[in-house]
Amino acid sequence: MTxxxxxxxxxxxxQIWSTYDDTYKYxxxxxxxxxxxxxxxxxxxxFYWNQxxxxxxxxxxxxxxQAPPGDGKDVLLxxxxxxxxxxxxxxxxxxxxxxxxxxxxxxxxxxxxxx
Length: 115
Known about the structure:
It is a single chain. The protein has 5 helices and no strands. By secondary structure, it is mostly helical. Helix 1 packs across helix 4 (54-66). It is globular.
C-alpha cells in the first residue's frame, strides 16, 4: 500500500464522515481518528476500511472510483477489488485474526476451520 493510496483512503474517509450530523460530535470524533491514524503505516488501510458498515464501504469504493487518476487511486482500487477479498479468505471469525491457512482452511491460533 503506497502513501498516496493511504492519503486517498484518509481523504475519502473524512469526506464520508463529513456528511454525518455532528450534533453530538460523533462525526468530528471520527474525523479526528482518521487524522490521527495518518498515512505512514501500510496497515492503516484496514482502519480506514473497517470503520465503515457495508453501505459506507460502498460509498468509500464509489468515491475512490470517482477520484481523478493518480494519487494512489489505482493502488487503492486494486486493493479494494482484490486485496480485501483475499484477506477475508484468510479471516478467522472466531479469534479475529487474518492468518487462516488457505490450503487447510485452519486458523493456526485457535484451530478453527474456516470455509
